[in-house]
Design brief:
homodimer, Arc Repressor Mutant, subunit A, Tetracycline Repressor, domain 2, 9 helices
């Protein structure tokens, strides 16, 4: 199926899906609305993506161009801070808005949760694991450090709690401070 | 206004509100439905609680009987593990279900967010800060440890990421492992 649309056309479609998601939320986002906004036929949308959950998950994946696993600065601290540097603050705000809108939908829609997990969560977690494996190989982190299994949990906490408790969006300065104060010390790495 | 209902009647009302919240979600929860389920008059509900966001926030607060700040075992590790021990697994599951249902509503309803912050989040954060302050006073944690400002973020991450990434509810064993692997090391405390 892939390859019927040019990469540029595909990106335009994904952008339109994310705009709709921010505007109306997941439940009110219909394939009709996507078709209308992108001047596509519904048949094309279903042929290309199969279902609404998959289309939404792919659109979100397209929105995340930073491939964490490719980052390799030679130190764990360098890798973490490079991740933050490659994500601009405006993008972080937009991502937070999307995630808030999806939190409830994910729970009510197992199909969306599965699509999100396969297309977005697992690649992110996999990239993070590649970064951590290199740190273990370099001898920066002990292979049996129990915090290795909780790095994603720590990261998610930074995003969600900043919003929920402080009522502020995550920004690069906050993330950089959190990495040095929490994630590196938990992993037994000197923060610099 | 307080004191017009017996404490037992008040607890019954709060339980009914939480049941409704789990069943239908925040948006569909109306004061009419609360009045019907609890055989109260709407006038009583408004007189006692003022508004739906405040009623929901108070019901949630009533659901959280563990006063963290009162826990004082003599060590930070002891205090954290006592928090976990005082919350049963079934209650954790019910709380997670409530929090999922509220995540979206919180963003769309500033009044609910304010009520939740004043009645639930700030007392919890305050209790946690009392526990941390005693650890600093005992010399277990350095007063300038930067992780002191992020303990709530770490805790929230444990709850949210467990659900989102692992698709499992938080349970006491998971929380105990997370405390020893992440929170205590970030604070510079030996996990025991």
């Amino acid at each position: 199926m892939a390859g019927r649309l040019t990469p540029q056309r595909e990106s335009e479609l994904y952008e339109a899906v994310l705009d709709l998601l921010r505007d109306v939320g997941y439940d009110a986002l219909t394939m009709d609305a996507v078709a209308a906004r992108t001047r596509s036929s519904k048949a094309t949308l279903y042929r290309q993506w199969g279902s609404k959950p998959e289309l939404v998950a792919r659109a979100l994946r397209n929105n995340k161009p930073v491939d964490i696993g490719q980052i390799d600065t030679g130190s764990l601290r360098g890798d973490f801070h490079e991740m933050v540097a490659r994500t601009d603050a405006c993008q972080m705000e937009k991502d937070s808005a999307l995630m808030r809108g999806l939190a409830h939908a994910v729970h009510d829609n197992p199909e969306l949760h599965t699509a999100l997990r396969e297309l977005l969560i697992e690649p992110e977690v996999g990239g993070l694991q590649a970064v951590l494996r290199r740190a273990v190989d370099r001898g920066e982190v002990r292979a049996d450090n129990p915090a290795l299994g909780f790095v994603t949990h720590m990261m998610v906490g930074a995003f969600v709690a900043r919003q929920l408790i402080e009522d502020r969006n995550v920004d690069p300065d906050f993330l950089a401070a959190y990495i040095d104060a929490v994630i590196l010390p938990a992993l037994g790495v000197e923060p610099g």
